[in-house]
Amino acid sequence: MTSAITKNPEAMKTNGRNRNNDYSDRAKAERRLGWILAGPAFIIMLAVTLYPILQAFFDSLYAFRLTAPDEREFIFFQNYVTILSDPVWWRDLVVTLLITVVTVAVELVLGFALALVMHRALKAVRGWLRTAILVPYGIITVVSAYAWFYAFDISSGYVNAWFDWVPGIDADLNWFAQASTALPVIMASEIWKTTPFISLLLLAGLAQVPDELTEAAKVDGATWWEQMRKVIIPNMKAAIMVAVLFRALDAFRIFDNVFIMTNGQYGTEVLSLLAYRTSISRLEIGLGSAVSVLLFACVLLISFIAIKVFKVDLAGSTGGKR
Amino acid sequence: MKSTGRQKLVWTIISIAVLVYALFPVASILATSFKSPGDLTNGRFLPTPGLATLANYEQILVGDAQGLFLTALWNSIGISLIATFIAVVLATLCAYAIARLDFPGKKLILTTALAVSIFPVISIVTPLFNLWRNIGLYDTWLGLIIPYLSLTLPISIWTLAAFFRQIPWELEQAAQVDGATTWQAFRKAIVPLAAPGVFTTAIIAFFIAWNDFVYGISLTSTEAARPVPAALAFFTGASQFESPTGAISAAAIIVTIPVVLLVLLFQRQIVSGLTQGAVKG
């Protein structure tokens, strides 16, 4: 847009050099200003993520624990071998993947239903509904975890009393003493807290489906379900994909709920908790760094699969293009 | 669509279902916060009539848990506000450049922001934990503010870039034609238009900083910098044998109040901010 700008007198005053190059001074100044304005944010983003992950990779090549700092020793990929040959890593990976898949699947259905409700609701109700569902979005995850924990807890809870007519639930059921009952509660609190976000993304996607298409389908006698399946969902595929990818990557990092409810006991440990336990609790910096790097690799792999296999166009549908 | 009586009924039922869904866990912990220690095990949702008490709030606001809770609250407010402020200032400049100026590397910046926002937080904790201990940032405000930027900065850049793309930039050109410099045009013509977007972004960034638990629990060890979510996990009862359930519930309610207030006041802005940053055609 600036390529056609002619040399302006002000620029000539400040810069008397030969300007027979591809860029006019104005364009050059714009590029410089662009980086002056955007540079600090860019550098800080790199400094707070790229640098630490490189440091983590470096540390992961050493046998190093803070309790014995003098015994630091370079061992190549031995830490990775240790972790990957430990069944705990694989168990935690399975638990994390299970939580990710189940929560995202439930959230997609629930979030879509919520989005439809908000999309169709009368104006007066819509504001209230959006306000209400923003409460779970804004609430602290730890608070949500405690709310669910205390409701189900064997001593302070009421769920056992309310649902004692359900087979398998009675006053003595300790929800947090085995993975089969603890994980559903963990997932429920995660779903409750994050469905609003996915439903708002889907609501925005719904708003972009042209009304004429739905009208045309209606005129052609399509049922509600046919309209959904043939018109609405295909037209908001991009929004759905982005919402799923974002939520999946977020769910994969789950930490707070598990920490509060079970602290990873009874086979409910997730990968983030494994990293925390190794580095912060046991001070095994070398091993913990290797877990961190592996976790990061998992996230990269998920993103890569989503973008290459499912062709999720993050940049396009998130406004990266002009 | 005809608004028949039956439809009204259906909508009422649906709306109530959504409200119950959204507010039930909050109501649950609110009810728990009014239970006295002996009443906690009553097996009911509400405190036993007549036994409801404000003792839990007293304990954390003026009682023996005061030191633990109020300092954590102060840490949370201070650290979150500073991290939000820095992120929003930097993101505003960055998003302005992305939306407005022509320079190479725009796409690189947006992609980086996206990559940082999906970054597993726990992966940076180990190296920071080690580094912060060595350079004295462990258990300090600054030691949390810096990593919080990894949470608040990317989403601020995305949200603001989306907002800024919708601003009628002709106004800026008009100001420049009238003799204003680029900077003056930005300040006088654009800032007033951009302010709502900046404000919305600040709310969203604040929510994210306020919510943090991983950094809070990993990079602090005392009341010096420990924020509320991490402090909740360290609450203990009045005695070794008393559970801190009531105190935690009361503290949870207090830190939820700002969230509810912001949501009530700025519902529309928050929704537009969240959806613009994420799904923008």
Can you give keywords for this protein?
heterodimer; A: 322 residues; mainly alpha; MetI-like fold; 2 domains; two-stranded antiparallel sheet; 15 helices; 70% helix; disordered N terminus; B: 281 residues; 0% strand; globular
Layout of strands and helices, then pairs:
The complex is a heterodimer of chains A (322) and B (281).
Chain A: H1 9-14, H2 25-59, E1 62-63, E2 73-74, H3 78-84, H4 87-120, H5 123-138, H6 141-152, H7 159-162, H8 179-207, H9 211-219, H10 224-235, H11 237-252, H12 256-261, H13 271-281, H14 285-308, H15 314-317
Antiparallel strand pairs in A: 1-2
Chain B: H1 5-33, H2 55-61, H3 66-100, H4 106-117, H5 121-135, H6 141-164, H7 170-177, H8 182-211, H9 214-218, H10 228-232, H11 245-278
Helix pairs in contact in B: 1-11, 2-3, 2-11, 3-6, 3-8, 4-6, 5-6, 6-8, 6-11, 7-8, 8-11
Largest sheet of chain A: 2 strands, antiparallel
Instruction: Give the tally of β-strands of chain A.
Output: 2
Oligomer: heterodimer
Summarize the helix and strand pattern of chain A as letters. HHEEHHHHHHHHHHHHH
N- to C-terminal separation of chain A? 13 Å
In what range is the share of β-strand residues of chain A? Answer: under 5%
Spatial ordering of strands, largest sheet of chain A: 1-2
Could you please say which CATH topology of chain B applies here? MetI-like fold
Protein model, in words:
The complex is a heterodimer of chains A (322) and B (281). Chain A is mainly alpha-helical and 322 residues long. Chain A has 2 domains: 9-59, no CATH class; 78-317, MetI-like (MetI-like fold, Orthogonal Bundle), CATH 1.10.3720.10. Chain A has 15 helices and 2 strands. Chain A has a two-stranded antiparallel ribbon. In chain A, helix 6 (141-152) crosses helix 8, helix 9 (211-219) packs antiparallel against helix 10 and helix 13 packs antiparallel against helix 14 (285-308). The longest helix of chain A has 35 residues, at 25-59. The radius of gyration of chain A is 26 Å and the shape is globular. The two termini of chain A are 13 Å apart. Mean pLDDT of chain A is 83; it is low at 1-20 and 316-322. By secondary structure, chain B is an all-alpha fold. Chain B has one domain (58-277): MetI-like fold (Orthogonal Bundle). Helices cover 73% and strands 0% of the residues of chain B. Chain B is built from 11 helices and no strands. Chain B has helices at residues 5-33, 55-61, 66-100, 106-117, 121-135, 141-164, 170-177, 182-211, 214-218, 228-232, 245-278. Classes of the chains: A mainly alpha (322), B mainly alpha (281).
